[in-house]
Amino acid sequence: MPTPLIAPSLLSADFANLQRDVEAVNNSQADWFHIDIMDGLFVPNLSYGVPVVKAIAKYAQKPLDVHLMIVDPDRYIQTFAELGSANLTVHLEACKHLHRSLQAIKLFGMKAGVALNPHSSVHLLQDCIADIDLVCLMGVNPGFGGQSFIQNTLNKTRQLKEMILRSNSSALIEIDGGVGTTNAKELVEAGADVLVAGSAVFNSPSIPDSVLALKNI
Ligand code: DX5
Ligand code: ZN
């Protein structure tokens, strides 16, 4: 079984000790920092914005994997490129012209990601899978950390893996929401390449140990 990339979601970090938690992730086996941006419109919650991401970027020693849960995300592509994001993921449900958004993200030198809400079929990506670097399958309805995993995400992971292989695409499959040591193994077996984990990493006694537990499943 391949070893998954692990992307701790800072949404569950201790914001009063953000530098400490960023450094703990730096000193762990984690691969990316997962950064959740929420606007209170696309999802019923606000997270944090540009000044906080700037502060994170100052200390982060691993690539920033930014997940935009905002309406009309094209407005912020340049901003997140300037903040040093490696990956920029937009929601299929938030884009009028997804193909154009993907091209714009790549033009700014970032990897282009598309996130799918639990209700969106992976088949909606059939005609642009060749243009996608990363597909983020939501394991929960986006907006909050600590929710329970929606089991159908496993079927979606298998279907997406098949589509990627069939299309000769090099897109990575990322699973976001409700991921922990109880489901990590079956997700990787189903085709997941990247596991995002918020509460499983930060609501634990040791950040490096919980990252390692997910990596070594
Ligand atoms: C949910 C966010 C996730 C969230 C995951 O809207 O996109 O990244 O932080 O948190 P857990 O791992 O606790 O489900
Ligand atoms: Zn996320």
UniProtKB/TrEMBL annotation:
Cross-referenced Pfam families? Ribul_P_3_epim
Its keywords, alphabetically, are: Carbohydrate metabolism, Cobalt, Isomerase, Manganese, Metal-binding, Zinc
Q: How is the cofactor bound?
A: Binds 1 divalent metal cation per subunit.
A GO term for molecular function = metal ion binding
Question: What is its pathway?
Answer: Carbohydrate degradation
Q: Which family does it belong to?
A: Belongs to the ribulose-phosphate 3-epimerase family.
Describe its function: Catalyzes the reversible epimerization of D-ribulose 5-phosphate to D-xylulose 5-phosphate.
HAMAP family cross-referenced by the UniProt entry = RPE (MF_02227)
Identify this protein by name. Answer: Ribulose-phosphate 3-epimerase
The gene from which this protein is expressed is rpe
